[in-house]
Amino acid sequence: MSLLSSARTVLDFVFRRRRVEREMEEELRSHLQIRADDLERRGLSRAEAERQARVEFGGYQRYKEECRDALGTRLLGELVADLRYGLRQLRRSPGFTAVAVITLALGIGANSAIFSVVDAVLLKPLHAPNPDRVVVFNSGPAAAADIEFNMWRKETNVLEDVSGFRSGSYYLTGVSQPQKVDAMLVTQDYFRLFGLHIARGRGFTPEEELGTGRLFENGHVAVLSNGFWKSAFGGDRRILGKTISLSGNLYEIVGIMAPHVETESAQPPDVWLPFPMSPNSKNQVHYFEAVGRLKPGVTLAMANSQLKLMTQAFRREYPNTVSAKRGDTYSVQRMRDEIVRKVQFSLLALMAAVSLVLLIACANAANLLLARAASRTREMAIRTALGAGRARIIRQLLTESILLSIAGALLGLGVGFAGVRALLSLGPSTIPRIGSDGSNVTMDWHVLSFTIFLALITGVIFGLFPGLSISRTDPNWAMSQGTIRTGAGRMQAKARSSLAVIEVSLAFVLLIASALFIRTLEALRSVDPGFDAHNVVTTRTPLDPKLLKTSNIDRAVQNAIQRLDDLPGVETVGLTTDLPLGGGFIRVPVSVNGQVPGKAPEGFARFVFVSPAYFGVLRIPLLRGRFFTDGERLDSPPVAIVNQAMARQLWRNGDAIGERIIIGKGLGPRLEQPPRQIVGIVGDVRENGLAQLPQPAAYIPIVQSRTAATVSWVVRTRTQSASLNTEIQNALRQATGLPVPPLQSMKDVIAQSTERQNFNMLLMSIFGASALVLAMIGLYGVMNYLVAQRTHEIGVRMALGAQKADVLRMVIINGIKMALVGVSIGIVGALGVTRFLSSLLYGVKPTDPLTFVIVSVLLTGVALLACYIPARRATKVDPMVALRHE
Helix (H, G, I), strand (E, B), or coil: what is residue 457? Predict the structure, then answer.
């Protein structure tokens, strides 16, 4: 009840302050009136009675303060007074206020922008019921195979709603113009696991998942997304039960997904299809993702303990499987952690970097407040003499700094909004959870709360330092000073110098980080990818006989190649199932054929189907043997070309010509290849990224493929132009009868493989440059202040015969000392911080001496420039003017 009463009192004071003050005033006057009336009855005149009453009563302002204390509103009253006074002070100094607010807005806005991305990617829960219990399976180099998935689904007692899924691309056919459709193949439990609500119709049944649906072979049913339903079918409410043709197969539409369904996919699918999963499948190919939910009360450690036992049981039951031979260990981890694993540390590093920028901005703002406080020393001395305590003075200065930081935060929200848009436009496409159009990254209440909290903390940080400094000033000494120059004293000068040193040291750390990222990107760009990307363009199309104009794939390919060869400007054309630097290739077992079973050399390699011209288009060098020829056919002897890494893996001398290998043994008819004779050895290509060493690879003629459903066309041109790209796109469209995606240059493919490093380098460079500018502005301000403070001393020195060069050297040495101290502290800090960045670097060590030397020289040189301008001004001091000023 007392708490409620206190709250009512506070609210009354806030919203009815004038009325409370008026009532208090009236009550005190009534007491004076009663006493005056009493004295008047005793024989005193009215004027004398009122005077005597006031004398007896004393200063009633003291009683008003006591009443405020009793009501608990005195502190509120003082805070309101501080706010009003602070606003008046800031309004009187518009230049100072503008500079401080803009400085803080840049720091707070940059932090808000980065936090928006961090919040969307790292902090927000999954779009699923009980998101912390949703886990993803890990089983070796890829996600899951049928044989393992069925075991997890049946035998584990710690998981529920175990589901499989994979994405795919289909074409909506049976219409005037085929349309590409993004699909997600899922098992029946997937919708329940992720809480996906179907607005119309239903989801998939177990029979449809098993491929025993009653209407169509292989359980061909589909659930449409709400957006695809409206865009492709005009929101037809009678669509349920009708059929559509996807890549030549008929699908019955059984459901329409609810609008605004949120998924973790970067690109939400247009349609969901059943993932055919036979419970008796022994397929060992890892080609899809497996997820599930921990049962209530089950921890991650308990689930992994159970899966460890399952690993041992699986190896005993299936000792000859690829997983058993490879030593795969099954485990689960939270899905959100797995999704953000590759970008988590990078985003946290950027968050730490932008926090350092904010600290430098705080130091700059603190320096501004110290400079301003120097002119208010006498004011604070008078306040102290009138009874204001140290805490009261600090609180007044903190109030002003918090007002500045709140104004900076309000402006920073606009900066942050613009920064978010810039981040989304510059950021790599591989950042998960941000949405295909960046819609998941918003300035919501999380960001608003963070910004408000940041504003308060920032205000305290840069306001406390000047407050503590000026509150220590002796009021007697301050009152005795006659000029602003000496008003601050040595303590304020040391405080400003210390802040400048802090700014330089923090800027050094950020510059080192940005320099390391720049050198990383340079090192990656200097890596030989193993092919020549100059004047090569590429695009990807399906080779499904159900989609092409002709059922003969060879005829369609030859028709397309002929059309492309006839184009002026086209040099040569090739095909491949997997483009270099794409990553995500399936690694399969490879063994040497014709040797003693169990003792033959074995390894793991990726395999790619290519056309004979592929190596010529990308100019991959032939080291030994020969390339494929047009003589290779489906019915001709199986052949293969291996890269140098595979030749070294399986043969000690690397001589693989004439040897026979078996690729994908035991993986089923789709992947297991017949024994193939090696006819050539080619140079290594960086298939998984420039930072990854070349992996063993085998190339197979595409005409001998039974699984190549989608291919990438690689076209070498004599010149690059938009019109030629359009002609190539049209030629492929005419040959296949399908829409063809826009062409992309192989140089762009290489650039995309380094976009994450480029993004890190760009942001860190922006932060480093901002830190450098802020630090130099701070150092310039300190030197300018020190020169102004020492104007009399400089005038005396010059009057006694000091030369301008002596004054110049004196001022510059003073500034360089601060810079060198900051650099020294920064070196120590950078050595401790950069070692955590090693996982983000390539081709350069975190403690690279050359980087430290270059940054030290750069920062010292810029500091010298920042000191030179005030020093130059000091040499122009007129001794007589300086002495008269004193």
Answer: helix
